[in-house]
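Predict the 3D structure for this chain.
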Amino acid sequence: MKHRSAPAMTRRSATRLIAGSLLGVGAPSLTGKLAFAEPRAAQLSDADSAFLDEMERQACLYFYEQADPATGQVLDRANNRVGNGQLDSRFASSIAATGFGLTALCIADSRRYMPTDKIRRRVLATLQFHLRPMPTEHGFYYHFNDVKTGLPLLNIEVSPIDTALLLCGVLTCRAHFSKDQKIVDLATQIYNRVDWPWMLNGGKTFALGWLPATGFLTPRWDHYAEMMMMYLLAIGSPTHPIDPSIWANFSRPKMKFERYTYISGHDPLFIHCYSHAWFDFYRKRDAFADYFANSVTAVRAHKAFCLSLNRGYSDDYWGITASDWMHGYTAWGGPPLMGPIDGTVVPCATAGALPFLSRDCLRVLRSLKDKYGEYAWGRYGPCDALHPSLSWYDSDVLGIDLGISLLMAENLRSGFVWKTFMQNPETVSAMKLAGFRSY
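Done. Predicted structure below.
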């Protein structure tokens, strides 16, 4: 599998350019009323629990083995078939994958997958390196970096969304290791130095990013997507906050597919998952929507969309989001149809949606492993994508895709990430300032 080169613009944020801009209001659902779904299954069978536990254990192994021990940076991707536990020879780390990795270390400690002292040492090394000497601009990090030196790769942007993903991991560690004052101090310094107003660049929404040679990128984070976490972290900042009124400045376009109506842009499914991995939106709403219920509807619509395509999808085999495919990396999904959908399935689409449609998503994941075994499953869990009818199984896994799968599996099982992350007073304050109220 040819390794894609790291782009100058984040692979996720590129989808911003094709989004709609109509303001959506209310909490969309199948009936037009608020649709509440349990944040995790009321009961998991012993077999389901064992399956998820093994999937989580494998993902945590990735975030330990495929991170440089000295810097704590996590590789963007690695081979899933080698099985020797060594750091992959590729050198591109992802600041977002590192954020998932810090959270993974907390999960591994909670589940006793690894000794606490070993995990604590890795957390400390990661935080120390990312406070300094890791290069930043106004506290924001570059998207892709050299895993050993921390230096940004050529033509890589300073990314506010990927910085936000790192910060979510940093704050999860601060809460989980709250009795370790060194971890608490390092995490607090990393969060507090981010100059959020700078990334607004005089506008009403955040810039997509910043390049040293040309300055701020023209597109903005101006419609509903995975970036809710970014705005909330900025609103809650105790040192460089943005005005809470900015929360209302990004649009919330409405999407309709068959009987489903919900807030979404023309984006892959992951946008309905990322912020939900840390922020607890369950039974809360702001002036515009209940975003947890919205994600439930989005996942239902996505399943119906896949099954409508007549491309081999079924109740046992569906789910597409930004991922590898046979010809590289692509942002694909729907509805509406986006990208070269050819019958490939992306396991992190259903794994990342586990809290929203647990029974349906578990059915897919267990079926993939049962039917395709070692072709689809490797040292770190499911491959990034597969197309069995074409005998193609990706040899790689991606850090961000394993990350969202791991966090949402744990949230389904225990709510651990939600409960831990929401112990940070800044996150609770931010949601209140943004107008969230519980039901």
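The chain has 13 helices and 18 strands.
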